[in-house]
Every structure is written in C-alpha cells, then in structure tokens.
Design goal:
Elements (H helix, E strand, L loop, with lengths): L1 H19 L10 E3 L8 E4 L1 H7 L3 H15 L3 E7 L2 E6 L1 H12 L13 E5 L11 H19 L3 E8 L4 H13 L5 H4 L3 H30 L5 H11 L1 H14 L3 H25 L5 E4 H17 L4 E2 L5 E4 L7 E5 L7 H16 L3 E7 L3 H13 L8 E6 L2 E3 L2 E2 L10 H19 L7 H21 L7 E2 L13 H20 L4 H4 L8 H11 L1 H10 L3 H21 L8 H24 L9
Parallel strand pairs: 5-6, 5-11, 6-7, 11-12, 13-15
Antiparallel strand pairs: 1-2, 2-4, 3-4, 8-9, 9-10, 13-14
The structure holds one RNA strand of 76 nucleotides.
RNA sequence: GGUCCUAUAGCUCAAUGGAUAGAGCAACAGCCUUCUAAGCUGUAGGUUGCAGGUUCGAGCCCUGCUGGGAUCACCA
C-alpha cells in the first residue's frame, strides 16, 4: 500500500504540473481517510491549491480526478464533493496490498534504527507501597518503552529508586519507636505495606505532637496567631527533629542506622518485586539514589568551580535561571547535604556514561513539571551532550472523588488491593458466562489476571497522559464497551475462528487471491489495518499509548460489525470465505500486537 | 501574584487546521437453531467554558477573560 500511496502522490504532482503548470513537493501531497458517508478510502483535499491556481475547488478536484482516471492503472473510481476528491482503488490493488502483509509476522515492528533511548519509570519511594498513581507511571512507562521498541529503537528501561532522604527516615524512626521488632514474616504483612504502615504512624505521631505544641505555645503567648503557632510547631515537633537527626546519621553512615535502613529497604524491595511481577512490568537497570547522590554533589562542586552556580553567604549552592524565565534554585543545602535535584544531576550523568543514549525519557507526574524544566535547563547550561534528548513524559494525577490521594493519611487506592479486587470481578464475570469450564485452576487464575490487568491497564492508558483522571472506587472498572476486556474478547473470538479454519483445513492465506469483489466492511477493515505501522511510529514519537488504544478499539469495533453482519464459514464462495478468515487473522494479530504494546496479554479463550 | 496544564453529550473520553464534532457508560427499543451475546443494531442526548482574532475552512492556532488543577520549599 505504501507504494501505491507514493505512486498516487507522484501522479497528483504530475497532474498539477500538466494541467495547471503548478509545481509542488511530493511530500506536500497528503491524504485523509474518506468519511464513511462517501465512496472511497483516500481523500485529497484541494482547498490549499485554490489560491495559487485561481480556480474553484471542484474544478481542480475534477481535473485531478479525471487525470488520474485516464492515466493510472490502480484507480477504480473517484468522486468530488465540495472540494474533496475521494478516491477508490481497484480490488486487485487491495488484494495485492493485503497479500504483502498477511504473512508478515512483524507487522507493526519497524526496522532497527540503532538508536538508543532510555525510559525511566516507576521510580518509587521506599517508604510506602505502590498505589493507583504509581500504576499510571508503571503502565505508561512500560507502554512507552514497548512502543519505542516497535518503532525501531533500542530501549533501556530504568528505575531510579528513591531510597534515601528524610521521608525514608520517617518510617525508620516510627519503626524504631513503635515497631517492637515486627517483621513481614512475624506479622504476615507484605514488606512494602509494613513499612508504609510506619510511615502513616509517623505522620499520626507528628500531628499529635504538633497539636500539643500549638496548645502549649498559645497558652504561653496569647498574642500568637493560630497560623504562626502551627508553623512553629511543625518545625519543632520532637519526632521531626529526631528524623532530621537520623538523616544526618544516615549521611554519616552510623552503623545502627545503616543496618535498620538496609533491613527495611530489603522488605520493601521484596514487596515491590512481587507487585512488579503481578502487574507485568520489568526493568533493565535499577539506580539507587543512595548510590548516585554523592556524584550529584560532585557535579554541583564542578559547576561551582566553572561558575555556572554560585554560593550564598551561608554556604548553600544555587543556580540562577531567571534569564530562562525560571527562578533561583537550590542545589546543595548550607549544611552540605544534598536535595532532590542534586542526585538527579548525578544520575543523569551516570545514565549517559553507561548507555550513551540519544534520548532519555522521564515518566514522572506533572507535579514535577517545574523540577524537570529546571533539571534540563541546568544540564543544558553545563553543556551536557545529552541535554537535547531529555524529555519529561508528564502525566496527570489520579484523584478520588473526594480529592487527591494522600499516602500519609492512608486515603490511597492501594495497587495490590486494586489488582486483587479486579481479579475477583473477573472471576465472577467469567463464572457467570460459563465459557471456560474445562480450564484447570492454574489456567483460570491466569485468565483472571489477564482480564483484570487488561481492564486496568487499558483504563489508565486510553486517556491522554497529560490529563488528570478521577477514579471512583465505588464503580469498579468496566468490562464492557470501550475496555481492555472488549479487545481481548474480540481477539479470543478471532482465535476461535482460526481454530475452526485449521480444523477444516482451509488455506486462507492463499485461497482468497481469486477474489473479485470486496464488501464495504471488508474494505474498511483492510484500509484500517494498513494504517497500523505508521500509527505505531507516531504513537512512539509522541509517547502516547492512547493513540494505540484508540486505534485498536476502532479496529475491534469495526471487526465487531464485520463479525455480526457477514458470515464466514457459511459463505459458499470459497475465496470469500478464505478472505474473511484471512482478514480475521490479520485483525487478530494487530489486536494482539497493539495490546502487547500496552502491556496487555491477549488470551486465546475467555 | 508569576509560570505551566486543563475545560467537548448527564458521566468517562475521542476527533494530523478539513466535509453533518464521534465512541463507551447510564436510559430506552430490537437481535442468540449459526464463527464466543464480555457481542451487534437502532433511538435519544451538543451554542466544544465566554468574547474577539487569524483563514477558503477553527473543538484544534493567536489574544483577552472565567472556572478547575499543579508548581514557585534548605520536602521528595
């Protein structure tokens, strides 16, 4: 089909030249899909040429249509509606194009480009378990990596684990104070959840202390405003001071603190590993901030020497980005300890040193838009060779109907819980339908997980990443309509057809070639399928799994009509029957591939 | 207040600057002797937040305004 389109472009250039003596670039000739109320599959819009040619749109369209009709072999017919030239190709053209893709097992996979790109995603904190918000970065990052791979890139998936800092110390401290030696084994609680519980415990204690302090302060000084007292108390709560002390001890590698830190992180990693496995994501390289923050300090030191940064009287180090429309930004505290961005500078260098990739994508929530603007700007100023290839794939927050989720307050939708609930819904729905009664327990479990994650991933990925979403836990995620399950179902139906075709020994890959007519629905499917490879590249370049999701949904819906309206095995014409099976096979393969890009498995039966 | 994001059917979302703005959910009405009804068809539902501008053509681009969100920490 590619060739035909190229030919068509060339012929239109020729037509414009011959009829109107008008010169234009081949690539400026583009087509759009013909709207379904008109005949044809490709539409050429002539409005852009009316001015230069000083003719009415219909005249130009007619002229070009006539020219193509007389001078080309591939055109079946054309029609002109208000300046839109709608084109139909001959049946042979379509059959030829279809023959070229039917056996291509790698349809949708672009050739290797030998260009490296890193996708960093997930990037959890080791003080709490993953929640619904984390699922979005995990699914988005995994899908982005898959799409880039399909577009021909060599992809490195990385995970930068935020395993140090005051927030980590908070759960450690609370554990020290209230833990009584509890472990995941002794309590039966998954490690990341156990640590998360102590993070909540810290916050409760902190709040209680603040409340007490406020009362105390105001009783001593009645002039003190509520607000002011809050502010003072929040800075001086004993447990916070202790946490700060612990952070310093950590940076000084006090053995007792290091031991506790390692122990608790190990629990969290075991928990994360399990969750990652369940939700089906993986990584090529883990970075730990505890290992990179020191090199970040080095970067700051060098930047100070090269006068890209400056030091204030108290010793803190800053960069001035006011010329770039940003602010002054702190890079190193007065006491010499590092802040968030410090380690990011070190990690960025390390990543590039290890992989030398030309593009580096950070899949991180939009609350950090400013942070990444600053980070990229700094790296640009420092003249890093990789600075131009940095991209922040920013996604919107997921909120509850009641507002934002807060880990500290325990108002989060936990990732493990949510997946478990979805599996139950899947099990229940499947039982009601009773289609897999011959499955053994392991097969059933596998299917429930596939359906649950399919629904969840599709739900989160079909929306434009930029947009925030509201998730209502009261309404469980749908299994009907525009859902992951619908796509899986369409795929499973196609698998049933292919099983039957095999059983009947129909050579559908070749038998359709004697066909001499194509039904409108078949044509729509064919022309839709041809768009897939370009769409994959487009989705990868724009880092938008939503494009894939929308495309496969449209394709599945079209197939749904085809499936309902045209019979396959009852079709007496052998070529037609084979053709419909072949179309089914190809649609099935595209659905499977598209779902795979989204990280969704496509079961053969459900 | 500065900067950034965002606003489309009751709800959740689509729509490379192109034709009469489309899906799903929810509601209503049909369709299983057939290849999986987790499906298919139909009905109903819209001043694309508001006001200007750019052009052959604007939901999309520009300006202003309004509503929602994020951020501007010696938090991460």
């Amino acid at each position: 089909m590619e060739n035909i389109i190229k030919q068509l472009q060339a012929d239109i250039v020729l037509a414009l030249k011959k009829i109107y003596n008008f010169d234009c670039e081949l690539n400026s000739i583009s087509f759009q899909n013909t709207r379904k109320e008109f005949e044809g599959t490709h539409t050429f819009v002539v409005f852009p040429y009316t001015k230069a040619l000083r003719l009415k749109p219909d005249q130009i369209a007619q002229g070009i249509g006539q020219f193509l009709h007389e001078n080309t072999e591939y055109l079946a017919s054309y029609n002109v509606v208000q300046g839109f030239l709608n084109l139909s190709f001959k049946v042979e053209v379509w059959l030829q194009a279809f023959s070229e893709i039917i056996d291509n097992e790698h349809f949708g996979q672009a050739p290797k480009q030998h260009r490296k790109v890193m996708v960093e995603y997930s990037s959890p904190n080791t003080n709490k378990p993953l929640h619904l918000g984390h699922l979005r970065t995990n699914f988005l990052g995994f899908a982005a990596a898959n799409m880039l791979e399909a577009a021909g890139y060599d992809v490195i998936k990385s995970n930068v684990v935020n395993d140090r800092g005051i927030h980590i110390c908070k759960s450690m401290l609370a554990y020290q104070l209230f833990g009584h030696g509890e472990t995941p084994e002794s309590s039966g609680i998954k490690g990341d959840h156990l640590v998360g519980d102590y993070y909540v415990k810290y916050d409760q204690t902190f709040k209680a202390q603040v409340k007490e302090l406020v009362a105390d302060l105001r009783s001593k000084n009645t002039d003190l405003s509520e607000e002011k007292a809050q502010e003072m108390a929040a800075k001086n709560a004993p447990i916070l001071l202790e946490a700060k002390k612990m952070l310093q001890d950590w940076e000084n590698a006090v053995p007792e603190v290091m031991h506790l830190w390692k122990r608790m992180n190990a629990w969290v990693y075991a928990g994360f590993e399990k969750t990652y496995q369940t939700i089906g994501v993986n990584f090529d390289r883990f970075y730990y901030e505890s290992e990179t923050y020191l090199s970040g300090k080095e970067v700051v030191k060098k930047g100070l020497e090269s006068q890209h940064f400056f030091q204030k009287e108290d010793g803190s180090v800053w960069i001035d980005l006011t010329e770039e429309g940003l602010d002054q930004k702190l890079l190193l505290r007065a006491d010499g300890t590092s802040v968030y961005i410090t380690q990011d500078l070190g990690t960025a260098d390390l990543k590039y040193k290890e992989y030398g990739m030309e593009k580096s994508v950070y899949v991180v929530g939009n609350e950090q838009d400013y942070h990444f603007q600053v980070l990229f700007q700094i790296l640009k100023k420092l003249g890093r060779p990789y600075a131009e290839g940095l991209f922040h794939l920013s996604y919107g927050m997921i909120e509850l109907p009641s507002g934002r989720m807060k880990s500290r307050e325990g108002t989060v939708v936990d990732a493990d819980d949510l997946v478990a609930e979805m599996k139950q819904v899947a099990a229940q729905r499947t039982a009601e339908l009773g289609k897999i009664e011959d499955f053994d327990d392991a097969q059933q479990e596998k299917l429930y997980a596939q359906l649950a994650l399919g629904a969840l991933k599709y739900y989160l990925l079909k929306v434009d990443p930029k947009k925030k979403m509201i998730f209502n836990p009261e309404e469980s995620i749908d299994f009907q309509g525009n859902t992951g399950v619908y796509l899986q179902y369409t795929h499973a139906k196609i698998c049933a057809i292919l099983r039957k075709a095999k059983q009947l020994d129909i050579q559908y890959r070749t038998d359709f070639k004697t066909l001499n007519s194509i039904e409108p629905l078949e044509l729509e499917l064919l022309s839709g399928m041809m768009l897939y490879p370009n769409l994959v590249t487009e989705a990868a370049e724009s880092y938008s799994p939503a494009l894939i999701a929308n495309y496969i949904y449209d394709l599945a819906r079209l197939y749904g009509r085809f499936y309902a309206e045209l019979s396959i095995f009852a079709e007496p014409n052998r070529a037609k029957c084979a053709f419909r099976i072949a179309i089914s096979a190809k649609v099935g393969q595209i659905l499977q591939h598209g779902l795979m890009l989204l990280g969704i498995e496509a079961p053969e039966r459900m």
